Amino acid sequence: MKYLPFRIVLGLAILGVLVPLCARAKDRHYLTSSEVEKLRDAQDPSQRIKVYLSFQQARLEQMEAARTANGDVRDSFDELLNQYIDIDNEMKDWIQYQYDRDGDMRKGLRSLLDEGPKQLEVLRHFQSSPGPDAKEYSSTLKDAIADMDDTLSGATEAFAAQQKKFPAMKENAKAEARALKKEQKEQKKLNKKERNLRKRYDKKQNPDDSSGN
């Protein structure tokens, strides 16, 4: 599933992102109940990416354990691979959703670009050293590798774009704050001038008669 960091039409972004997010939220069979809770707690754009990465890392470790276990591990390994792909796709939906809404994900994307290649290396290791049941899950493994490749490609583009965007937004915000401060200062001067004029006017209208008091 390819996600596009530079979508132009907002309507397409809504159709392409909100629907998958809602669908996944209702049927997260690939997550444990505690993992769902962790996602609910991770509302920060970057933090949630890191949480997804931790789920994927856990699946890789479980896959490695399944490969070295005695007995038939075909079903468990294939199921873990499918969970890994589902988590990756949900993470991509989240990244696209936040990208379209200018959510600052730079820390999370940096973690993804650091940890993602390591996870990809593990997947390729599984592919280069197949177990006895490799034929049963070779297609799913190929999908998982392609999926993470796609994720890293999109994350690289998104990170580069946000590195340019957010410093500029910060500078614009500073410029606006300076302009507002200047405007407030000018307004204070005008208010002070108006008060002084009013006092002089009131003094003329009601001269102080010290001799009568």
Give structural notes.
With 213 residues, the chain is mostly helical. It has 6 helices and no strands. Helix 1 packs antiparallel against helix 4, helix 3 packs antiparallel against helix 4 (74-100) and helix 5 (106-128) runs antiparallel to helix 6 (134-205). The radius of gyration is 29 Å and the shape is rod-shaped.
Q: Helical element count? A: 6
Low-confidence stretches: 1-20
From the N-terminal CA to the C-terminal CA, the straight-line distance is 90 Å
Q: Supply the helix-strand structural class.
A: mainly alpha
Number of strands: 0
User: What is the molecular shape?
Assistant: rod-shaped
Mean pLDDT: 80
- Secondary-structure element pattern, one letter each: HHHHHH
The main sheet comes to: none
Determine Rg (CA atoms, Å).
Answer: 29 Å
DSSP helix fraction: over 70%
Strand content: under 5%
Please outline the helices and strands.
Blueprint lengths: L9 H17 L6 H9 L3 H24 L5 H27 L5 H23 L5 H72 L8
Helix pairs in contact: 1-4, 3-4, 3-5, 4-6, 5-6
Key traits:
disordered N terminus; 0% strand; 6 helices; mainly alpha; 213 residues
Compact summary:
The chain is mainly α and 213 residues long. The chain has helices at 10-26, 33-41, 45-68, 74-100, 106-128, 134-205.
